Every structure is written in structure tokens, then in C-alpha cells.
Amino acid sequence: MTINKFGNLSVQGTSLGKLPYVGPNKVGNNSDVKVAVVNMGDSFETMNILPQPGFDYNKPFGLAMKLINGKIGGGEAKTNRSGGARVATFSGTLVEETSSERDSIPEVEFDSTFITGKNHNAVAQIRSKDAFDKENLILFGIDKNLKMDSRNAPERNEAGEPIISNYQLNFVPAEKATKGELSEDDYIRVLLVPAIYDNVKDKIKRGVKIVPQGLQFAFVGNDATDWTVYAQDLTIVEGQGTTTLEKPVESKPTPAVENKPANESKPKADNEKGAKN
């Protein structure tokens, strides 16, 4: 059973910004996958991109490139061969920045953010519906994840009570669930900070439609969890799905996309420890 086991997610190429070309590289368990190495903007951070067939790797250093119809998913890292861990990998059509080619997916569909697992830095805008339909989820369980210290023991506040890191909302896709077609890899876990959960907990009941908003995806790539998904807001629809809350839940906005490393394979420790698989 793997939590949040998604396929490739569509990436908005323009949200990555300018990608100065560096050169070719070989990646993968057997170092047999040829990729293009680019810098992210004017930083020293690099990104490996699996380009389209026939891509010309003999380009001058620093040539500004852009990604068209990009995807992000899990790929094997040769440094993790023995551990089986994977890293986030980009693919798509890599062209010069001056090209007139554009993403075939409308900009409005890129409703979520891909973030680094360690520092939660925003990397690119992605399309959440490639992972799941957030409008058609069934909530079946809620768990508390405790904040853990370096000894893997719960951290406590001044009153001696364990500190809650986040609330774990456990969903299944409604279409599969109602047809009795769920598999062990269909479970969806979304993490919510306590401040937002406390605002809506009295309205969360069985049968009430819950739509997570402001989604952020961090790639994990281990045997238990493929992706960690965070929600910045919740929309709760009461009755027969026609009446929404009069006052939306307020939260911090999704951070602007920054030029930060994308190839990270571990999530932020505080948000994963204590989670149930």
C-alpha cells in the first residue's frame, strides 16, 4: 500500500522561469538515461530534464531555454540504488526561450504548487487533477500527526501536552468508492495545519462534501508515501452540495514560485513523523 500514489503531474513551463542550458548528463540506476541539465533562473540550482526525442544536446552554455507541456513524476536516482528511494524528475519539450511554442493546457488549470520536501520552497505550478479530482472526494478518517523531536519523541508545550504538527485528512475517490472499485493504492492523504482545522472542525461531518484548496505537492518517493499533499484552505459544502460556507476559511496564500532545487526525495520531518500508513 502506497499513500498518494500518483502518475505524472502536468507542469506549467512558464512558472519555472528562464532555464539557462548547462549540458547533458546521465542519470538513473544504471546511468543510462540521458537528460539535459539547466540552471534555475540566475541561481546555481540545477534541474535535470528528460527532453523530447531528437533533442540537440550540443547547445551553447547559458542559452535560455523553456519547458513546454512538462511533466513531473518519480524517477530512479543512482545514489539511492540500494535504498530504493526515488526523486522527482521533469520531462517535456525543451526549446529555446524565443520559441513561439506554448503549453497546450490552459493556464487556469494549473491550480496547485510543486514544492521542495525539505524547505517547502515553491518550484512550479502544477495541475492537481492529474493526481485526483478534488471536487469528488469522500472523507473517511481524520488523524493527528504530532510534532516530533530529534529523538523521535513527541514535542510538548508549556502545559506538557503533545504539540500537533498537522491534521491528516484521509480521502478516497468518490467514483471508485461508490462502484466498489477501490484498490490499496487509491487512498489520498491531505495534511492541514491546526489553525485551519480548528476553524472548520465543527462543520466536518460524515456526508458533508469537503474540497481541499490551495494544494501543495512535495515528492517523497519511498515505499510508504509517493507524495505529501498539503491544503492551505478547505471549502465545506453543506446540504446537497449547493450551499457553501458564507465565510471562507482564511489562510496564508500559496508562496510565489522561487528558484529553488527541485530534486529532493525526503519530506519535511515534522510533517511526516507520526503519520499513519
State the gist of this model.
Residues 261-277 have a biased composition (Basic and acidic residues). The chain has 277 residues and is mainly β.
Key terms for this structure?
5-stranded mixed barrel, mainly beta, 7-stranded mixed sheet, disordered C terminus, 277 residues
Shape: globular
> Number of domains in the coordinates?
2
Query: How far is the N terminus from the C terminus?
Result: 8 Å
Mean pLDDT: 84
| Count of helical stretches | 3
Biased composition (Basic and acidic residues): 261-277
Region (Disordered): 242-277
Structure in words:
This protein has 277 residues and is mainly beta. The chain folds into two domains: 9-102; 130-272, no CATH class. It is 6% helix and 38% strand. The protein is built from three helices and 16 strands. It has helices at residues 174-178, 194-200, 269-272, and strands spanning 9-11, 19-27, 33-39, 46-50, 64-76, 86-96, 112-115, 122-126, 137-146, 164-173, 188-192, 209-213, 216-219, 227-231, 233-238, 243-244. A seven-stranded mixed beta sheet has the order 8-7-13-14-11-10-9. The chain has a five-stranded mixed beta barrel with strand order 2-3-4-6-5. β13 and β14 (227-231) form a beta hairpin. The radius of gyration is 20 Å and the shape is globular.
